[in-house]
Structure formats: structure tokens, C-alpha cells
Amino acid sequence: MEQVSTENLLLAGSTLLVAGVLAGKSSHRVGLPLLLIFLLTGMAFGTDGLGMQFSDIHTAQSIGMVALCVILFSGGMGTKISSIRLVVAPGLVLSTVGVLLTALFTGLFIWWLSGMSWTNIHFPLVVSLLLAATMSSTDSASVFGILGAHKTGLRHHLRPMLELESGSNDPMAYMLTIVLIEAATTDTSLSVGHVVGELLMQFGVGIAGGFLTGRLTVWLASVYRRLGGAASDSEDPAQAVAMTAILIVGCVFFSFAATTALGGNGYLAVYLCGITVGNGRVVGHRGIAKFIDGITWLAQIVVFLMLGLLVNPHEMLSVAAVSLLIGVFMIVVGRPLSVFCSLMPFRSVGRRSKLFVSWVGLRGAVPIIFATYPVVAHVEGASQIFNIVFFVTILSLLVQGTTVMAAARRLGLVERQEVSDDHFGVEIPDELPTSLHTLTLTEAHLANSDLLRDLELPQGSLVIMIRRGGRYIVPNGRRRLQPSDVLLIIRED
What we know:
Elements: H1 6-24, H2 27-30, H3 34-45, H4 57-77, H5 81-84, H6 88-114, H7 125-134, H8 140-149, E1 153-154, H9 158-168, H10 170-185, H11 192-229, H12 237-261, H13 266-278, H14 285-310, H15 313-316, H16 320-342, H17 351-359, H18 365-376, H19 382-399, H20 404-410, E2 414-415, E3 434-440, E4 461-468, E5 471-473, E6 486-492
């Protein structure tokens, strides 16, 4: 076999990366989710496209594992405890009971399909459940990416509920996948006690490991600052923030590896580590968040391009019909049924909210990565499992990913969201005793006067910028204001 040079690898990788980013730039114009564009770009460069060869399933699994750690940590870091406090219970039920029910309903449907003479899949019950388990969790990268791309708010705390579910439901799907692979490849039968024990071990150690490593990360960041690593007369503040961010990234992978070594779920650990760090007092938090955000986008792009390269589209044609049936069942029956059953005890979650949560059952990189596990374990029919999961993922991103906000508007769940201060591109050092806020003006604010100098603001507040439509205006006391103007305000803490 001819050895591929490092230069050729770099040439192929850089070409693929640049092509994916440029193609992704048109995602809003064509109405497709950005991550689907990367997936399709990888397929276009793959075996059935331009002929780029990549079939190393072990390498794909390892890269996917690393990328998923970064994605989950970033999602956790952006989750504010204050925003999820009211939705912790329904979010966690969805991420556990909901995943289990989705796998059960879909697995039984796949088993029923396997018994039909006209289908080309013939899976036993355990393998049918395994196929369903790999697709049972919503994909955090897809949910965070699609919801984050829209500035519109959602009523009834739906956004934090969906982000909490997608960030915390991978461990359940992972555990079901591993247990079912064990049952499919050995003579051991599924024992309820064994499964429950494994789940308790994975979740218990995962929760403890995530919380402890999160606290350790915050402490190490503060120690680094006290040792002179933070901004001082002899060090560039930007360098200090960058080094702290690198320290945190190292702790992310330590959290995953250490928790996994102790028998816990590493994916749950890194998500909880992210929540702990994101809600902790870390100097340079804003700069670190931007650094992590950039790494997260790189991880998402790389993993979706890689998975696009890994699949052979012509192989999906043989399972296209049955994959379409499975995908439609999951979207129309499996996911809604599991959501309504899971949320039945929560009377505060209305029917329209349940319908929307059912529709945001997005599949993405995570199911495809989990579908590599049966291939590595040499489960009978593993190649069909992988192709079916890939087909269902594309179907989910095409159908659900392009209609998320349309569904929210149709169900009357959209609400106006305040403009973030980041939208102004203005930053202030975390060390200063001040904070940035935004205020969107209404008729009530301007009832007495439309002059800026007459606007009633809290003591210690100063307007430093006005946004009107697409224009930015420098304020002064004689500036006349209009409803829907957005004010950027600096305030003493």
C-alpha cells in the first residue's frame, strides 16, 4: 500500500476544510442547516464524489470522541444555571426516560419491519433495539447550532429545556448502545438488574466526576492567575486569557478520561464540567468563551466533514426505502410518543410546547458516531446499521432542521428576545466593576419625552451606543429616540 505523505494529507485536509467553510457560508441562503452543509461537502469529496478515500472507522470514532467532548463542554459552558433552574426536571426526564422510550418504540418498529418479506433488513430484536439506541438521543451540535443561529426567543423556557436535553441525553444513548452491543455479541441475556446497575454507575460517577473536575478547573484557573499568569505589567492580558483557555481545554479531556477510567460516563462529565466552569468565577471569562467557541466550530466542522467522507452514498441506496420508513416513524411517531409520555407528569408543559419539543428531535453527528461502535464490535449487520443511521440523520436535518423556527411560529411559541451586548461588538475587561446591558425601547419608555437626556435610567448607568435597524448611532443628550431602538448601557455593579 502506497504511503500517503504528510504534505498530501495537509493539502487534502485544508482543501476540504476551506471548501466546507465556503459552502457553509451559503447555508442561510439555501435554507439548510449549516452542519448539514458540512456533511454534504464531505460526501461530495468522498468515494462517490471526487474520490477522496477515508475508511478508517477506528480513527473516525476517536476523532468523533474528541470532537464530542469539546462540543458538549462548550454547550455546558454556555448554559446558565439561572436559565435552566425551572426546566431541570423535565429536561432530565427527557434525556433519560425520553431516550429509553424512543429506543424502545423505534426498536420494536424496526423489529416489526425486519419480519416483513419485502424488506432487505432482517434484524433480531436485540440488534433492532441497538439500531434504535444509536439514534435515540438528540444531537447537541445540531440543537445548539440551529437554536444558536436564530436570535429569536422561545416562550415557556423551551430553549434551555431543549439545550439541557440535548447536552445531557448522550450518556443514556451511549449506555444503551454499549449494553446492547454486549448482548448482541455474547451469549449473555439482558438482565434488568445488570442494566440498572450499569446506568447507576455511569450516571453516578459521571455526575461526581463532572462536578469535581469542573471545580478543579475553576480552582486551577485562579491558581494560574495568582502565580502571575494573568494580566500584569510583564504579561500581555490577551496571552493570559489564551493560556487560561488552553488550561481549561486540557481539563476538559482530563475530565472525560478520568471519569471513563473510573467507570463513569465521560460525556456526561464534560457537560457538567462545562456548566460548572461557565457558572464559576473565571477571570477573562468572555475571552475564554470566544476561544472555546472557535474550537467548538472547528470540532463540529471536522467531525461532519469526516463523517461525510466515511459514508459511501451508493451503499445507502440499498437501505433507502427502509431507512425512510424508520426516519418517518421516528419523526412522526417515536419521538412525539416518547415526549408526551415523558412529560405527562409536568402539567406546566403545555400541549403546544410538547409538540415543539417533539419536532426538535434532531439527529446529527452523535448518532453517526455511536453507529461506528457496532462496526468496531463486528455486530452482524453493522454496515446496514451505519448506513441507516446516516440516512435518518440526513432526513432529520433536512426535514426538522429546516423547519424548527417555522414550527415555533406556527405554534405561537416565538417571543422577542433582547439583543445581546455581544451584538454590538463591544467588550469590557472582566476585572472592571461594570457590566454591559441592552434595553429595547417601547412607546412607554418615550411617553414623556423622546430625548435621550430625559430617559429614566438606573443610577450609575450610561448609554454608550444606540442601534437603530442596521445603523449604529453615537449618543448625546439631544439625540431623539424611537421605539425599537436598542440601547447599549454600561452600568456600575
